[in-house]
């Protein structure tokens, strides 16, 4: 039984294979071999017809179609023929018959059963060959030439000449516009997030796969999602939470006493002045609390408030007072500067109005109301010399030229050129010899100048005291200043109107009148340390004149009422001006004609200002007896503004007749400052 | 009960007394004393132990004034304050070294001059002073005025003896008249003679120093030049032609002129036969080689130096500058210009400082606050003694003779103090 089954199965299989193998080649065939196949098929067909002709078997056709034939296992027939008659299952012999058949029939091995009809079919040689070829994985058609010559229907060779004669169309050279627009559309969609690239999709998938967390109560304090569309939404102010007073059972201190009740009642007319808008009430239990009568009204007013009252964000600036102050370095880092009084130069019998220091820094020169000029040794406070000058000394100035031993002193209407006879003997004698021989006047001095100033020789007594030249002016002198080289000096007569400033040249003994017109009361003049400029301070403004071009170079506006003094930085680009209205002005000449900094440090009029030649220091002395030392750093870098830091107030002078300090000057090399005052002393601070 | 003892223990401190002076040696055992103890009580304790020991040896009792050194500094405050300043733990046994206290110098004499005394020097019982009235005065150590010499035309700012013998002496003076004069003084006859006039300084001469071998002297002044001169009266430079001179005194050029300082040289000192120290207003102290004429080292301060003094005993320099502090520098240290100590007690500028010639710790200082002060270099805040007497600025001082502390000032006097604490070197 088993064997039979197996053989049955085998045979069916073979049959199936044969069927498919018949069709396969045709399917696989390309259209390239159509002709050939046609011929082969024809041949097959003829052969088959021949066989059919020779076969004596009836043409039994089953009409059940391609169905599993085991459906007919229970029946005696296996289907229906063309006429609708049952096809009876052919009679099967038993195993012995089969065996006999096997032994006797030489074609038994190639006999298969046709399942459709139940008939035995003997396979032809051709069928067997076909099956064998398929089994050995060969091309089933034995006539097919596997290694035949390749017929190239479409050549792979590139032809040199085009087939067509016409030129290529323009659109084959330019990018396709429709494609470009499509790409553009895709790109736009991707950008807008409507279309996603594969990469994005992958990332999203990954994100989905990861665990995500949610803020459970995010809507409580975050803005409402819908509100985001409104730019800068201002949420409605929240109502205050109920306080203890609003409780049904408030603590006794919240309940109104008689006085509070009286106040409440008194404010009946002006309810907005009340602290509370209700009277706290006490109930034994929540059950007894009556309905709130004003509830609807309050809700209504609140709604009115919310939509009728525009809400606005208030910009409140919170500026700390410290932030408004400029960031200045600590005075500790700006050392050295004078901090303590070191020496007092006592000797004058009246107010000391002016002081000056010799270029080397060994001696100090002072002029006083006691009509004398004194020269002091700085290191010991020893008065080396006293020169009577016969007038109140309003200005003294040591000649800045180290090769000359010369001081200029103004006493009332006289300008005295004095050789103090102190310092290098050689320089002293040289200066004397220069001054003893007056140069021959080549040009005639105009009468106008003669009326203003006369150059006179001193008397013998005066000569003994060191006075070498006397210049008698027509008005009282107020100030004298030397040019940096020491040949020129300028004097100021405030009452002289247009003749108030004079420039004297020592080597030729001539005086010049630089200005023809009066611009105001001249207070002070100053030579620029490097360039040929003359600074002239009138009451309110400072004019800078170019002495070479003889023209006004610049006019500085002080915005002060009355200028008292000025000093120039050794670099020549910065000027400080002291005024009688308590201000000290710092001008940066490169920056502007207006003050760069205004320092209001003194409580009364400033009398004198001074710059240090080497250290970044400047000082001011005023009538309030205070000497204020400040740090004034000027940078070489033009982009950096000067740094001004007040450092130290030195208040040692005594008060006398409302006058404090008259003159301030720095030591040329050390960070020491000198001040002279109405208390007849000169003080050194180190 | 227990608590009380603990608190008591906390304020107690273990000390041990040692000394280098054998005659005052006491048994070496630690003592537990109150940590707030001061100098006075310590003195009583040590004296008591010492006298106990002496009575055992059948010797007379002593009453000595002691000074106490704790961690190399003199005890001037209560002991616990002193230790806490030094950040010393209280648990350790504190070793206190004691020695006989310096006896206070006594004012001895006052030499009255006609003008400010700006320079002073002592040698072999002779005091020489330079005055602002251009004169030079010679006094005996007993205070007797011997002679007043005029010759300078400016205040005499520096003066030094060169040699003193029994019958004659030579000295050199520098003045603001830019000249240096070498003088010869015949003691017997009482006459002086200006041997040589040194010219070369272009501004006033401020300081002067004679070399230890007396052959040369150096001057400095406002012309910022350091000049070295020969003290030989017959010195003639080879390359300068001898001019015929009217005056008796010969004009002398310097041997060497050393530029280097930028401002006034305020003090100069020979530290040995070749080397010099100069202090200047340009904030530096320079160490020169006087033979070759170069700068060896330089100490840079931040104030103008007014005076300095070098001590051979400890190799340190004390300086005074344009503030009220005295600063101690170690010349031998390689670390540069490190301040080893600062002594502040003066209320004004200090203008003169002098080391003791015998005690390596003692020095005197004088300032514009009219005070002379005697210092121990181990006590930086408090001086040993204040030598009051001057009524105006102190300008110069001298301590060449260990017994005599001399100072001259703007009150026209020279004050002499007798120093009793004289050790032999």
TrEMBL record, chain A:
This is Ribosome biogenesis protein BOP1 homolog. Keywords: Nucleus, Repeat, Ribosome biogenesis, rRNA processing, WD repeat. Residues 72-338 form the BOP1 N-terminal domain. It comes from the Eukaryota. Residues 1-11, 47-57 have a biased composition (Acidic residues). One of its GO terms (cellular component) is PeBoW complex. SMART domains: BOP1NT, WD40. It is found in: Nucleus, Nucleolus; Nucleus, Nucleoplasm. Residues 1-57 are annotated as: Disordered. PROSITE patterns: WD_REPEATS_1, WD_REPEATS_2, WD_REPEATS_REGION. WD repeats lie at residues 345-386. Required for maturation of ribosomal RNAs and formation of the large ribosomal subunit. SUPFAM superfamilies: WD40 repeat-like (SSF50978). Belongs to the WD repeat BOP1/ERB1 family. GO terms for molecular function: ribonucleoprotein complex binding. InterPro entries: BOP1/Erb1 (IPR028598), BOP1_N_dom (IPR012953), WD40/YVTN_repeat-like_dom_sf (IPR015943), WD40_repeat_CS (IPR019775), WD40_repeat_dom_sf (IPR036322), WD40_rpt (IPR001680). GO terms for biological process: maturation of 5.8S rRNA from tricistronic rRNA transcript (SSU-rRNA, 5.8S rRNA, LSU-rRNA); maturation of LSU-rRNA from tricistronic rRNA transcript (SSU-rRNA, 5.8S rRNA, LSU-rRNA). The keyword Nucleus applies. Residues 12-24, 31-42 have a biased composition (Polar residues). The keyword rRNA processing applies.
From TrEMBL, chain B:
The keyword rRNA processing applies. It is found in: Nucleus, Nucleolus; Nucleus, Nucleoplasm. One of its GO terms (molecular function) is ribonucleoprotein complex binding. It comes from the Eukaryota. The keyword Glycoprotein does not apply. Keywords: Nucleus, Repeat, Ribosome biogenesis, rRNA processing, WD repeat. Belongs to the WD repeat WDR12/YTM1 family. Required for maturation of ribosomal RNAs and formation of the large ribosomal subunit. This is Ribosome biogenesis protein WDR12 homolog.
């Amino acid at each position: 039984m088993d064997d039979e089954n197996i053989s049955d199965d085998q045979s069916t299989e073979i049959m199936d294979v044969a069927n498919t193998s018949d069709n396969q080649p045709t399917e696989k065939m390309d259209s390239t071999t159509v002709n050939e196949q046609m011929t082969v098929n024809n041949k097959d067909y003829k052969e088959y017809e021949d066989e059919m002709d020779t076969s004596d078997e009836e043409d039994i056709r089953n009409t059940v179609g391609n169905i599993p034939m085991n459906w007919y296992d229970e029946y005696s027939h296996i289907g229906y023929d063309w006429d609708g008659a049952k096809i009876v299952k052919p009679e099967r012999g038993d195993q012995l018959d089969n065996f006999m058949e096997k032994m006797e029939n030489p074609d038994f091995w190639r006999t298969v059963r046709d399942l459709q009809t139940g008939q035995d079919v003997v396979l032809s040689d051709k069928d067997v060959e076909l099956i064998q070829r398929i089994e050995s994985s060969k091309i089933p058609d034995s006539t097919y030439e596997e290694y035949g010559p390749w017929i190239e229907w479409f050549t792979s060779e590139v032809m040199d000449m085009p087939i067509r004669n016409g030129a290529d169309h323009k659109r084959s050279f330019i990018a396709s516009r429709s494609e470009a627009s499509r790409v553009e559309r895709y790109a736009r969609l991707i950008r807008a997030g409507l279309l996603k690239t594969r990469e994005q999709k992958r990332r999203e998938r990954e994100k989905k796969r990861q665990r995500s967390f949610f803020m459970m109560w995010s809507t409580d304090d975050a803005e409402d999602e819908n509100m985001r569309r409104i730019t800068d939404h201002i949420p409605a102010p929240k109502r205050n939470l109920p306080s203890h007073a609003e409780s049904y059972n408030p603590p006794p201190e919240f309940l109104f006493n008689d006085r509070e009740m009286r106040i409440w009642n008194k404010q009946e007319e002006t309810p907005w002045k009340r602290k509370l808008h209700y009277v706290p009430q006490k109930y034994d239990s929540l059950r007894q609390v009556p309905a709130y009568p004003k509830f609807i009204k309050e809700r209504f007013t609140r709604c009115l408030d919310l939509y009728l009252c525009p809400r606005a964000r208030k910009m409140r600036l919170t500026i700390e007072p410290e932030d408004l102050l400029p960031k200045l370095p600590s005075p500790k880092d700006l050392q050295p500067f004078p901090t303590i009084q070191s020496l007092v130069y006592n000797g004058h019998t009246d107010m000391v109005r002016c002081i000056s220091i010799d270029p080397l820094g060994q001696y100090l020169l002072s002029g006083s109301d006691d009509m004398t000029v004194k020269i002091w040794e700085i290191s010991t406070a020893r008065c080396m010399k006293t020169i009577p000058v016969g007038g109140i000394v309003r200005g003294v100035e040591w000649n800045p030229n180290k090769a000359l031993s010369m001081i200029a002193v103004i006493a009332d209407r006289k300008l005295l050129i004095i050789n103090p006879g102190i310092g290098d003997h050689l320089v002293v004698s040289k200066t004397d010899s220069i001054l003893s021989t007056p140069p021959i006047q080549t040009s005639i001095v105009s009468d106008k100048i003669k009326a203003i100033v006369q150059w006179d020789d001193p008397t013998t007594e005066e000569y003994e005291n060191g006075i070498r030249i006397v210049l008698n002016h027509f008005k009282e002198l107020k100030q004298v200043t030397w040019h940096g080289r020491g040949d020129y000096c300028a004097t100021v007569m405030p009452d002289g109107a247009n003749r108030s400033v004079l420039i004297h040249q020592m080597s030729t003994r001539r005086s010049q009148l630089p200005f023809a017109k009066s611009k105001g009361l001249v207070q002070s003049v100053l030579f620029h340390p490097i360039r040929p400029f003359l600074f002239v301070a009138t009451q309110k403004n400072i004019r800078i004149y170019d002495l070479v071009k003889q023209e006004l170079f610049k006019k500085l506006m002080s915005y002060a009422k009355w200028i008292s003094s000025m000093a120039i930085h050794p670099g020549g680009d910065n000027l400080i001006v002291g005024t009688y209205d308590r201000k000290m002005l710092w001008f940066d000449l490169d920056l502007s004609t207006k003050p760069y900094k205004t320092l209001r440090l003194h409580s009364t009029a400033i009398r004198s200002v001074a710059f240090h030649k080497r250290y970044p220091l400047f000082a001011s002395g005023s009538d309030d007896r205070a000497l204020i030392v400040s740090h004034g750093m000027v940078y070489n870098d033009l982009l950096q503004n000067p740094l001004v830091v007040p450092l130290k107030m030195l208040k040692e002078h005594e008060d006398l007749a409302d006058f404090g300090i008259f003159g301030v000057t720095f030591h040329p090399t050390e960070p020491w400052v000198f001040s002279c005052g109405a208390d007849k002393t000169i003080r050194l601070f180190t | 009960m227990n608590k009380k003892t603990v608190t008591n223990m906390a304020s107690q401190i273990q000390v041990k007394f040692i000394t280098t002076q054998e005659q005052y040696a006491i048994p070496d055992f630690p003592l537990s004393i109150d940590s707030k103890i001061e100098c006075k009580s310590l003195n009583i304790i040590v004296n008591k132990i010492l006298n106990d020991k002496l009575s055992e040896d059948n010797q007379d009792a002593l009453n000595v004034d002691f000074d106490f050194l704790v961690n190399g500094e003199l005890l001037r405050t209560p002991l616990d304050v002193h230790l806490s300043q030094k950040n010393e733990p209280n648990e350790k046994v504190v070793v206190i070294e004691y020695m006989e206290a310096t006896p206070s110098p006594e004012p001895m004499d006052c030499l009255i001059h006609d003008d400010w005394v700006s320079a002073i020097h002592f040698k072999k019982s002779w005091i020489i002073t330079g005055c602002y009235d251009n004169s030079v005065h010679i006094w005996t150590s007993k205070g007797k005025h011997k002679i007043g010499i005029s010759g300078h035309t400016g205040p005499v700012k520096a003066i030094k003896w060169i040699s003193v013998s029994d019958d004659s002496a030579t000295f050199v003076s520098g003045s603001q008249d830019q000249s240096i004069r070498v003088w010869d003084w015949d003691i017997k006859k009482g006459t002086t003679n200006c041997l040589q006039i040194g010219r070369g300084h272009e501004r006033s001469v401020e300081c002067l120093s004679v070399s230890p071998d007396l052959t040369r002297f150096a001057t400095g002044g406002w012309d910022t030049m350091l000049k070295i001169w020969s003290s030989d009266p017959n010195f003639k430079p080879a390359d300068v032609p001898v001019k015929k001179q009217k005056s008796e005194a010969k004009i002398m050029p310097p041997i060497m002129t050393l530029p280097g300082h930028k401002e006034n040289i305020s003090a100069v000192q020979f530290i040995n036969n070749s080397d010099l120290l100069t202090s200047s207003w340009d904030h530096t102290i320079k160490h020169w080689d006087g033979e070759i004429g170069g700068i060896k080292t330089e100490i840079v301060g931040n104030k103008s130096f007014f005076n300095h003094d070098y001590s051979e005993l400890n190799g340190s320099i004390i300086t005074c500058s344009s503030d009220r502090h005295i600063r101690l520098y170690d010349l031998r240290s390689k670390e540069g210009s490190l301040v080893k100590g600062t002594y502040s007690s003066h209320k004004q500028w200090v203008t003169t400082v002098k080391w003791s010639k015998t005690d390596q710790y003692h020095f005197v200082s004088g300032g514009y606050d009219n005070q002379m002060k005697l210092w121990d270099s181990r006590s930086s805040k408090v001086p040993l003694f204040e030598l009051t007497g001057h009524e105006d600025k102190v300008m110069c001082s001298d301590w060449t003779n260990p017994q005599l502390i001399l100072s001259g000032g703007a009150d026209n006097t020279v004050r002499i103090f007798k120093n009793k604490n004289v050790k032999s070197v």
